[in-house]
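Incident log, structure service

09:12 report received: a user says their structure output differs between two submissions of the same chain.
09:20 pulled the input from the user's history:
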Amino acid sequence: MQPLADAMFAAAAGAFSKLAGVAASAGPAEPEPGDASIRVEPEVVATLTRIPSTGVTFVSRFVKADVGHVVELMLGTPPEEAGSGEMDAMQLSIVAETVAQIATAMGERLGAETQTAPDGTNSEVVNDAASFPVPPFTSFRAPITLGDLQTSVAVDFDGIALGKIEIPAPGSAPVAAPPPGPAPAPPTPASTAAATVAAARAPRPSSEGQPVAFTTMTPTQIRTATPGQANLDLVHDVPLEISAVLGQTELSLREVVAMQPGSVFELDKLSTEPIDLYVNKILIARGEVVVVDDKFAVKISELNPVVDKL
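09:34 re-ran on a clean worker, output below:
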């Protein structure tokens, strides 16, 4: 397992380097005893990786604060603003995606080292201790250096997953599919007779169903409601969500995370154009913005507008 662990941590360093844009290297993997249950720790983010081709699963554990610094490098956060406080929801989401990509790279490297197809390898962040391997398990930890930052990554294999990992001999070729068996011999008269007798004794299929004759009926006449008397009271109290959209635009993730109070971004509409009015996300009207009793309002200028199509 030691060479496999070293290869996996080297893949983690490569993924860190690619994401952060700085040189990264991994130290030698060190085995640790795994006799106690793994707990959900607030300073650690853990991922569960599955390799469908072998049925192997393993848990990777990353130091959350260190991965946060990597995310700052990815987003180009100025040094004076780096590590200024707790990570917000956006940064935590990026941390989760980052460690999932790194753990997947480790799983693909494990598949390559064991000469198994890594197709479909996937990783996800887990917060439930029930997903972690139960003791005893085999754990490896290695230091990873990224520029001036040093962190550590741990990988945990339970006994069942460890037993599914087959380490090929050095220089061995990938496992090939078994050769096709010999072609079946042509049927002999005896075998043909036996097959005929067996077919005669086999239960015969049931007969085909007969078409069903239905009684002819006359459709019930639909009565048109008198104008003004249609029973719309059943739907009058259905709540609808109405949205007035001033305009739209597209921003990159870097631009969204870098937003500060006072930031300005441009929309796709001119100030003289009407705004769109949506009901349950369906465009039903356009209008202009007015003020009524110190509140914004919309004065409808067009109903059921024609939607522009590219």
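09:41 both user submissions now match this output. Likely a transient worker issue. Closing.
09:42 reviewer note: The chain has a mean pLDDT of 75. The longest helix spans residues 89-113.
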